[in-house]
Design a protein that fits this description.
This protein is of the alpha+beta class. Helix content is 32%, strand content 30%. The chain has ten helices and twelve strands. The chain has a twelve-stranded mixed β-sheet, sandwiched between helices. Helix 2 runs antiparallel to helix 8 and helix 5 runs antiparallel to helix 9. The longest helix has 16 residues.
Length: 351
């Protein structure tokens, strides 16, 4: 077993290698470094599990995005890791980057070296806008100023674009409360049908569901970030569902169907097989043309009520919302969520 504090290495000795997700030893070493960095001094970290990252990296034919990763080694030990995600159907000037350095090896230039490598790879793929995130304590400033993670980014050309807040809800939530929210919302949407499904999106609503989830990027607050809407056609959705299956994730979805048969609102919960007890709130959105019917509240409350009746092994639900999204925060607070950590979204333009 590697000693994570055994090496005090300058960046000049760093060898950066492309990660092969089909190499179990290389994958395990990469994830060990990523995990040690991600959870360091954080009580509410939500790291991706090894199987989840491996499924993303193996999905080389996914039409929506391409995930790549690199290991930074000194004397054979992985001290820093990097990841790059490239949208392929939208946001074609953008790339998402992430750097994680072993806590014992920080402040030696390793993270900076890995970031420069990722920038070069992004430029090689024609990308001119980099996106990344940094987590920091909830009691600090929204932009993370003064925290090492945020300062690392701003000192390297990134600017703060949007402040999110991580909230958690202990499960099971009060069923009477959830049912009360459902009952409160129901009179506002008498012409809409509520449907629920686990896993793949049903064929008959696939196209309109894709259009709605593709708008989440721009319908949700974006702050100072430069982003475009996303394209989710049938091929991309089905490809993503395949990755989901391989990563051990199960999605529970509640949708509201408008009188014309299209999806007017949705809410998704994701249960990871390899992170027992957890569940993650993914998107919740009502189409602008269908707002005022409390469909966001209805689908979100119904979805959690359904999930916890199906799964009594879940202990905590995690969600992220832009701090300026007062409407959704109000819904979360009524459901009992409490804030635990901040997440800053940062962006750097290369030209």
């Amino acid at each position: 077993r590697l000693s994570l504090g055994a090496v005090n290495a300058p960046a000049s000795e760093l060898v950066i290698e492309r990660l092969d997700p089909n190499d179990p030893d290389a994958m395990a070493a990469w994830h060990a470094t990523y995990l040690a960095s991600n959870v360091h001094q954080r009580e509410h970290a939500t790291p991706w599990q090894l199987e989840e990252i491996r499924a993303q990296l193996r999905a080389e034919d996914n039409p929506g995005s391409r995930a790549l990763a690199w290991s930074g080694r000194v004397d054979g030990q992985v001290l820093v890791v990097g990841a790059l995600d490239l949208p392929l159907m939208d946001n074609l000037t953008q790339a998402y980057v992430e750097v994680n350095t072993l806590p014992s090896q920080r402040n030696r230039g390793l993270g900076s070296a890995m970031l420069e490598h990722l920038i070069g790879e992004a430029e090689r793929h024609g990308r001119t806008v980099l996106n990344t995130e940094a987590a920091y304590p909830y009691d600090g400033p929204a932009d993370g100023a003064g925290h090492a993670y945020a300062d690392f980014l701003t000192h390297r050309g990134f600017t703060f674009g949007l402040g999110d807040v991580q909230r958690v809800l202990d499960l099971p939530a009060d069923e009477r409360m959830l049912q009360g929210l459902v009952d409160e919302a129901t009179p506002y949407h008498p012409g809409y049908q509520i449907r629920q499904f686990t896993g793949p999106v049903p064929d008959d609503i696939l196209d309109s569901f894709g259009r709605l989830i593709g708008s989440l990027m721009t319908e949700a607050p974006t702050g100072e970030l430069e982003v475009e809407g996303e394209v989710f056609d049938a091929d991309r959705i089905r490809a993503d569902e395949k990755v989901f299956e391989e990563s051990g994730r199960t999605k529970y979805t509640t949708v509201a169907i408008a009188p014309d048969g299209t999806v007017a609102a949705y809410s998704e919960l994701v249960v990871p097989r390899y992170d027992p007890g957890r569940v993650f709130q993914w998107g919740t959105l009502a189409h602008p043309e269908h707002r005022g019917h409390r469909l966001g509240l209805a689908t979100k409350a119904r979805n959690l009520l359904w999930l916890q009746r199906e799964r009594d092994d879940l202990r905590v639900l995690t969600t992220y919302n832009a701090e300026v999204n007062s409407h959704m925060i109000g819904v979360n607070e009524r459901m009992g969520f409490r804030p635990v950590e901040r997440l800053g979204e940062f962006q750097r333009k290369l030209i």
